[in-house]
Amino acid sequence: MSLEDRSMKNIKKLLQKEIFKNKNLLILKTEPMISIRKATVDDLKKVHEIEILSFKEGSYPLFMLRQLFDISEDYFLIAEEEDKILGYALGNLVAKEEQGWILSLGVHPGARGKQIGKTLTKELIGLLEDNDCKEICLTVHPDNASAIKIYKTLDFEIITLSDNYYLDNEPRFLMKKEAVSNIVNS
Question: What is the four-CA torsion angle of 162, 166, 171, 172, rounded to 10 degrees?
Answer without folding.
Answer: -70
